Fold this sequence. Notes:
Helix content is about 40%, strand content about 20%. By secondary structure, it is α/β, with parallel strands linked by helices.
Amino acid sequence: xxxxxxxxxxxxxxxxxxxxxxxxxxxxxxxxxxxxxxxxxxxxxxxxxxxxxxxxxxxxxxxxxxxxxxxxxxxxxxxxxxxxxxxxxxxxxxxxxxxxxxxxxxxxxxxxxxxxxxxxxxxxxxxxxxxxxxxxxxxxxxxxxxxxxxxxxxxxxxxxxxxxxxxxxxxxxxxxxxxxxxxxxxxxxxxxxxxxxxxxxxxxxxxxxxxxxxxxxxxxxxxxxxxxxxxxxxxxxxxxxxxxxxxxxxxxxxxxxxxxxxxxxxxxxxxxxxxxxxxxxxxxxxxxxxxxxxxxxxxxxxxxxxxxxxxxxxxxxxxxxxxxxxxxxxxxxxxxxxx
Length: 339
């Protein structure tokens, strides 16, 4: 129900508003005199009496309106900002529990697996920084191993995406990886949404996968139709070659990582891979993506519900204070007159 431009939590309370007329039906306390002309006309007293009745009505009305619970409902407004829509895909495989390490440091890896410098925990750290520096972005989140879980649909709520990223770093990884399902899930998120601006898929993984022909066709069609930009943060294994590195060894060119990279390059969409082997390179990759994905974006901003009981409550309190002071003054005046 809308009244005075406000919504009301308990609109039935408004049925009590006629009670504000009660002060106007007070008992007549005028004294009977022998001749009415003995009583002089006092316009000031009449005005003061009308004022007190009006103030009493204001008190009753204000208290009723306070009990009715006025509020401004939650609103969604659109504004123009700078940024992008980003769906983050994070690999939850067991290898993401390993630490960053370059080739030749296998011994160090064996000593540090599962500790604070694991790939997924460092990924969490820099993804959090990425989210914090992009106030206008809209984020979604997909966590995948053998299945893809769309943990968070596209949202402007930064607290939600931070909590989701934090939760993704808990526990231990699983043994299998299905990147294809995660890629399709990310595109389907955009498929359900109207277009607001730059659309990005950010894949964070340390391995690759050979896609089936059906998955390749589905991904190619979805990503082109939804005009997506793809970034792959490749957190390579200890002994793995750089994803862009060419090797005379055919076994490297046939690895799932290399084939996945070639498939991504074959897509008719903007694509870039970041070869990550250290904390510094991860930080630089995030900074690069941040600079590139800074385009005009239609931002939907949610203004939360605002309760408006306080103004009515204070109006009732201040008006009652005036009436109480007036009654004290009247009592004092009567006492003085009879002294």
